[in-house]
Every structure is written in structure tokens, then in C-alpha cells.
């Protein structure tokens, strides 16, 4: 059985730290807490789980803090979490099983990260991260902000999910870090350009975000998933600015990086739906339902674009086309994903009333 050090960097996490540590404590052999300046009860809560608590002066560099935490670890493998992450009970049990089964030749283990959720608790942002790494390899964190763990060697994918439980409101901390770096004249990597553009977009600075997304794409040196994401986010920015032509161009721009993704098919479906070109909208929404969704993809994904959303929109399109049986069929598929969705339930009642009258005359796909 391998041994595991859990490493966290924290600051003012009194509302989230206890459930985080409680969710994983039985699966780890030591807990390392690096505090970057808490003024609340964070340290007191940490002390109920570990005496391995260290202070680290915050220097606007997440990698520096995470690398310091990793240097304090003493066990064979290092697991890292944020203070607002948890392992659900079934995932903690899977981690315990992994401890028994993991071959020492494995250098890193990836786990899924459910980052954001809809009103029914379904994940709407899901991706993979290297979560458990062999300590002796001395893997390093890279980047002052939106840092990543640079790993190599034998990487194993685990069927374990870390669940994000965000309670903090949106902050301008990251945006200010980027702006301060610009003021100091620090060069930005392609990754920096991408994440700075994201911060600008998230703070409704759409015109400036467009500039930096284009700067990122112009480098030609970005990660393909970030390039595809930039096209999506450019479309969002142009939509907010009321520029539908450039919004459409941004969607098609994504096709130069990869075959069509479900998200972009849904965007095109919506474009035609709003213009009452229902047959064209059906084409793109149907394609979204038929595309293979790779489970190995490291990029951010929102399952709704390949599950309930295109089926719900197909229901709308077919209703406009007078094909109520098809509309009902796709609404039922959407309902299988979201049984408590009020709009889908409303569609069901409406279409059942229509089909009761004219069911025999309805066409099928």
C-alpha cells in the first residue's frame, strides 16, 4: 500500500476547510496545510486535523505557495486539493482502494474535477487534472496564476472525482495580479494571455477580452483546448456586444482546430432557431446529439451540450415545424436528463394535449 501526503494552500477558509479535510482524512497519511495569511479561524480548524501547519508570505504567486507545500510532504505520493474541494464518500472509498492497487511505476494519477453545477446538481463544468503524484519525482507547479502541475512519465487515469464546493463570491484578485504583472512589464506566455482574457471577460470587459483572446490565438502556441475555448469565449464576448456576425465567425473559427464540438453545434442551432430557420437549426442540434464525447479529453466540458439541451431545442424546432410527435420524443429524452425541469414538464403537458387531438396525423423522423 502506498502512503499519501495531502497538501493544501489556504487563506480565510473557515467555511470550507472542515468539510474538505473531513472528506479525505481517512484516505491520507499526513496533511500539510500552508497558510498564506488567514485572519479567521482557518488555522484553528486545521489544527483539529494536523499539526503540520506552515506560514507562507503571499507574493501573488500560487505556484510558489504550492511548491512550498509540496516540499513539506514526506510520504510516497502527494495529493493536492483546494480548501473548497471535497471527495464524496464513494470517491474517498475509491481512493482507499487505489492505495492498495497502485503500482509504484505510476508517476501521476489523474482524477475528474466537477467544478460547477446546475440547479439540479448536475455538473456543467468537468475536466481532468493530475491529482496524485509521486513525491520523489519533484514535479513542480508552473505559473504565478492559473498554475498547472508539470508532470511526465507513467500517467494513470483514475475513476475518482473531486467535487468543487465554491461558496466565495467572485473576486477581482486574479485580475489585479495580471494587471500588476503587466504594469511591471512582465512578459506573458500564451497561457497567461488566455487566462488574462478569461478574467477580463468574467469582469464584463468584453472589448478588451477580445483583444487578448486574439493575441493568444495569434501566438499559435497555445494548448488546443484553450484555443477552442477561446473561440467559444470570443463568441460570448461578441454576443454581449451585439455583434452577431463576429459571434458566428468565432463559432466557425473553432472548426480550424478540431472537428465540430457539441457546444458549437448548439450555438449554430440557436443562431438558426432565432432566425426561424428551423430545418437548419434541426441539422445542427441533431449533430450535437450524435457526436462522440471523448472521456479522455483534458479540456473543460459542459455535458448539457451533448445531452438535454439539444434535445430540448429539437423539441422547440419540431413544434414550430408542426412535427409534434418528434417534438414529444426529444422532449422526453431531455426529461430523462432533467426530470424536475419545469419548462420540460410544461412541454410534456402541452404536447400530450396536442397529440391527443392529432396523434394519428403526426409524422415521424
From TrEMBL:
It holds the Pfam family Glycos_transf_2. Residues 5-139 form the Glycosyltransferase 2-like domain. This is Glycosyltransferase. It comes from Paenibacillus plantarum.
